Amino acid sequence: MNKFKKVLKLIYDYMKSHTIMYVFIITSLISGTLLRYYTIGNYLATKPLLTDLAFLLLVSYIGHFLSKRNQFKYFLIWSIILVFICIINTVYYSNYISFTSVSFLKTATELTGYTGDVVGNVLETKQFIYLFQIVIMVFAYVQFRKTDAFKDELAGKSTKKKIKKRTIGIEVALSIASLVFLVTMITTNGVKRLYQQWNRNSIVRDFGIYVYQANDLISSVRTKVDSMIGYDSAYKEFRDFYSERETTKKENMYTNLFSGKNVIVIHGESIQGFTMNLAFNGEELTPNLNKMAREGIYFNNYYSQESVGNSSDTEFTSLSSLLPSSSGTVFVNYFNRDYETILKLLKEKDYYTFSMHANNGSAWNRQVTYKYLGYDDFYYYTKDYDIDETIMLGLSDKSFFRQSVEKIKTISEEHKNFYGTLVMLTNHTPFSDQEKFDYNVNIIDGEEEIPFLEDTKIGNYLRSVNYADSAIGYLFELLEENNLLDNTVIVLYGDHDAKLKKSELNKLYESEYYEDVLINKDDRIDSLDEFTYELNRKVPFIIWSKDIVNTNYSKTISEVTGMIDMMPTLSNMLGVTPRYALGHDMFSVENNIVVFPSGNWLTNKLYYNNTKGEYRQLDLNQSVTIEEIEDNNNYAEQLIKISNGIITYDLIKAYETGKVSETNMK
């Protein structure tokens, strides 16, 4: 009994002398739990809670050796860091359904064009609830200053050495326990997932926000280290991969169809595929997109494949047929590589290449990266546009298109051929500038208006999409008026999904009025689960030209395809041949596989979740074998690895330089 009392006394003395530390740990655990409550939802899960605890114990260990005054400074600094992590990730998740990266934070100062306009729209009161941690830390310190232990330390009568002797065993035990626990929790598969960091949401769900952010920081540092080591093995894999690929070009009815034509690519901000199947009160939500799809070539099973770089990832993948970087973003971390892009291939045929955007040129480092991708010129924001109408983050899409067509008219007079990208902006999250939109997302029944999606996030999004569609129709009118459609191919893609949560989307899908607004009833979605949510993230991809309207070239293609396939597809149609594209010509591929940066993949048969090792069969009439799944897993991993190698080590340049050297030696 006496021994038991001594142990209790020892624990009591230990806790009393480390009050600030325990307040830090408890409040940090609450913050981490709140973050998961506001984001991925598994706030009651034990594993991330315990992993957070292990991380916090390791952080706290250093504080043991500091004076009471310095302990407070140490834990307050850590509290500020962790509070910032929770706030920034909650804000980011609410808009992108993912967690932020150090590489994104590094561009925050460059994204002033976005952040300056969007702050008032994306911030919510709940996102600052984490500040309670700092308030409690200060309050605890104020109270602790009144204790005898603190007063004794100030008076030089500290019992620090005594307490240290009695508690050093507990400190060591806690540290060892934390380390062992982390090692135990992070299994072999877990270590692989942390190293690859393909699926950010999965890491936070299983390991907590603190381990995720620490791992992300390590990954950002590793990108610099990786560029100095591991080159030889990456180069060998690169050479083996391309030497084993079939090099014979497959021709089809679309080969060289648009050779010598101009190209205008419409980068459709946040335009998701399901919006094209909606009509409220008999009025199509996207009449212009639907007309393009009917008259052109429409890929209705097309996916974006973007990662943390969002729009910039889509631009990169569409031009290069490589996947986004698994660590950091190409536009920020790996912009100065020698990538093979459709821009560079067309420039060999004397094409003039340009991009136009209604916001700051520094956003996503475009001003710098575009030169490396092969753009001759970049027209943007106040440098080239009169900001005469602002909606959401900057110049409205309609004003942007009007002013852009004036520039394209001049370009067409000065250059025989051109390839240009028009980056839309208005339909950007958080879709809050609603007074500028006039589409009705309620139900009209006779003289009665029945509330449906008005004043909801998804309702705001749909109204914003309708404006974007109207702007696209306006662009076509302007191009026709200026005789710019006759020798021009229009390519449109949605850059990524709207990043709406399942709960928002289900306000549409689970509503009794959903059937009333559906155009094609066969495409009905009853409700979203984890798999159907991912499948629903598809975006439109349309190729349109006057020459193919009402011909057998115009069709809808339902084969699963992705952004990585855009470059080789257009290359085939424009008469150029890429050598390093990882995607496929969509007119020549059968049984395509779409690989996502998370390691998940999709075929016509099934969607596979690599993190969980689970899949959803899409065609029940086709059998699926274990060997087929293993082969596709290996292919997905190889594709990500080869793409990362090209990006990290600049392997295309190295390979081409090596070939030149070998030729010279001969």
Describe the structure.
With 666 residues, the chain is of the alpha/beta class. The protein folds into 2 domains: 2-225, no CATH class; 248-593, Alkaline Phosphatase, subunit A. Strands 1, 4, 5, 6, 9, 12, 13, 14 and 15 form a 9-stranded mixed β-sheet that branches. Strands 16-17-18-19 form a 4-stranded antiparallel β-sheet, with helices on one face. The protein starts with a helix and ends with a helix. 45% of the residues are buried.
Short description:
This protein is α/β, with parallel strands linked by helices and 666 residues long.
Topology summary:
Elements: H1 2-17, H2 19-38, H3 46-61, H4 68-96, H5 102-106, H6 112-122, H7 132-144, H8 148-154, H9 160-185, H10 188-196, H11 200-226, H12 231-244, E1 262-268, E2 279-280, E3 283-284, H13 287-295, E4 297-303, H14 311-320, H15 330-333, H16 342-347, E5 351-357, H17 366-373, E6 377-380, H18 381-384, E7 390-391, E8 394-395, H19 397-414, E9 417-423, E10 443-445, E11 448-450, H20 457-481, E12 488-494, H21 502-509, H22 514-517, H23 530-535, E13 539-544, E14 555-557, E15 561-562, H24 566-574, E16 594-595, E17 601-602, E18 606-609, E19 614-617, H25 626-649, H26 651-665
Parallel strand pairs: 1-9, 1-12, 4-14, 4-15, 5-6, 5-9
Antiparallel strand pairs: 2-3, 4-13, 7-8, 10-11, 12-13, 16-17, 17-18, 18-19
Helix pairs in contact: 2-3, 2-4, 2-7, 2-11, 3-9, 3-11, 4-7, 12-25, 19-20
